[in-house]
Amino acid sequence: MITSIRRSVSRLPRGSLNYYRSQIKFYSAAAIPEFQKAVVFETNGGPLIYKDIPVPKPRANELLINVKYSGVCHTDLHAWKGDWPLATKLPLVGGHEGAGIVVGMGENVKGWKIGDYAGVKWLNGSCMSCEFCEEGNESNCDHADLSGYTHDGSFQEYATADSVQAARIPPGTDLAQVAPILCAGITVYKALKTANIRAGQWVAISGAGGGLGSLAIQYAKAMGFKPVAIDGGDAKGELCKSLGADIYVDFTKTDDMVKTMKEITGGGPHAVINVSVSTAAMQQSVDYVRPTGTVVLVGLPAHASVESKVFDSVVKSIKVAGSYVGNRADSREAIEFFSRGLIKSPIKMAGLSELPRIYEEMERGEIVGRYVVDTSK
Ligand code: NAD
Ligand code: ZN
Asked: Which residues form the Enoyl reductase (ER) domain (predicted)?
């Protein structure tokens, strides 16, 4: 069929060409089913229903990706609970760390082919024409479309993604391993850039035993920094050390975090990457960061704020900066670190249908590393 369309294309008037191109793409993807498995919720905090839903059709600018694996990020839990001051789409298919294979695409897509490996990221798409997009700050775009939040995400077997923003994953990559890089990896890599520190300097990772933190330790190492990992419990401590943290501080066993952190690092870490979901931990980091250092806020506890005393901020000349995922260049670079073998995802495998149990474990802070779900189970 494809060959016969291709043969006849050369004899057609020019206007028909796009139609036939889209037909070639359509026929290439003939094995796509009409229905698929997904986890859907209809109200924030309501039942997470594992059920059959129609396979979405890609719009003109979109890829259709057969998601093989998806990481489960704490953001997915926030989206389900609806605890941020930003409404989710409802009903919603969550998920934004989806790694899979391109099986279809709209007629305006350029530079992708069927069979390419592609990733569904948090930033599904943006306007690409505002001041923020123009300067590579697409995640700050007013029209940012967010996977698993305003756009059905990767907790389904087939997901759509804007072809400009979809992550390019090199052929032959282990799709389960790369999944957490698509949000957690990109986010912590960008946060470490935001910290603006030099090789050899101390960086504290607060929340180091979780999904973002376990990757942050490794990116910090690969970038030449000295990571101090902070989290709670022995299991997370063992993971942090195995991933290369020079020191582990257990916040559940430390009375005075500010004093301890200053002692360990000889005056405070040069930067702190806050990936915990704890307001108290974020507040402490403003107090123990080294003079002239940077506190990077990444974790998003609901309704939280941190106080930076004007006198201390001025006299210590510290910076408190927010960091929000990363742009296309950050994504490509974060994936390159992974492809070079510098980053290993500490993953636990589960089936998509097990998502409610995973959220319960996440809520209790019990997950060591990252869960990755197989969308076919
Ligand atoms: P996670 O649940 O896997 O990890 C959080 C970790 O913080 C856990 O290991 C927990 O034990 C630890 N923790 C809890 N209290 C702590 C304390 N007082 N001190 C130190 N550690 C503590 O979550 P995750 O998937 O890594 O996500 C973390 C946060 O980052 C979430 O709020 C998520 O929404 C947010 N996030 C932000 C961005 C962004 O672009 N800014 C991107 C992705 C995720
Ligand atoms: Zn995420």
From this structure: 45-373
pLDDT at position 9 is 36
Q: Which amino acid is at 148?
A: G
Fold of 32-182+327-374: Quinone Oxidoreductase; Chain A, domain 1 (3.90.180)
* Residues 223-281: tens digit of each pLDDT: 999 999 999 999 999 999 999 998 999 999 999 999 999 999 999 999 999 999 999 99
Ligand 1 binding pocket includes 261 (Cβ within 6 Å) = no
Taking the C-alpha atoms of residue 279 and residue 253, their distance in angstroms, rounded to an integer, is 18
Give the model's pLDDT for residue 31: 87
* Cβ 251 under 6 angstroms from ligand 1: yes
User: What's residue 363's pLDDT?
Assistant: 96
- Alpha-carbon distances, residue 345 vs 11, 53, 225, 259, 295 (angstroms): 51, 30, 19, 32, 25
Q: With a 6 A CB cut-off, is 282 part of the ligand 1 pocket?
A: no
What distance in angstroms lies between residue 97's CA and the mean position of ligand 2's atoms? 7
Contact 65, 159 (CB under 8 A): yes
pLDDT tens digits, one per residue of 89-126: 999 999 999 999 999 999 999 999 999 999 999 999 99
- Encode pLDDT of 48-93 as tens digits: 999 999 999 999 999 999 999 999 999 999 999 999 999 999 999 9
Q: What's the pLDDT at 71?
A: 98
DSSP string, 227-275: EEEEESSHHHHHHHHHTT-SEEEEGGG-S-HHHHHHHHHTSS-SEEEE-
What are the backbone angles phi and psi of residue 167, rounded to the nearest 5°? -80, 140
Rounded Cα–Cα distance for residues 86 and 69 (Å): 27
According to CATH, the superfamily of the domain at 185-322 is: NAD(P)-binding Rossmann-like Domain (3.40.50.720)
pLDDT value for 8: 37
Domain ranges of the chain: 32-182+327-374, 185-322
Distance CA 105, CA 143 (A): 22
**Ligand 1 pocket, residue 209 CB under 6 Å:** yes
Which has the higher per-residue pLDDT, 24 or 339? 339
Q: How far is ligand 2, taken at its centre, from the CA of residue 253, in Å? A: 28
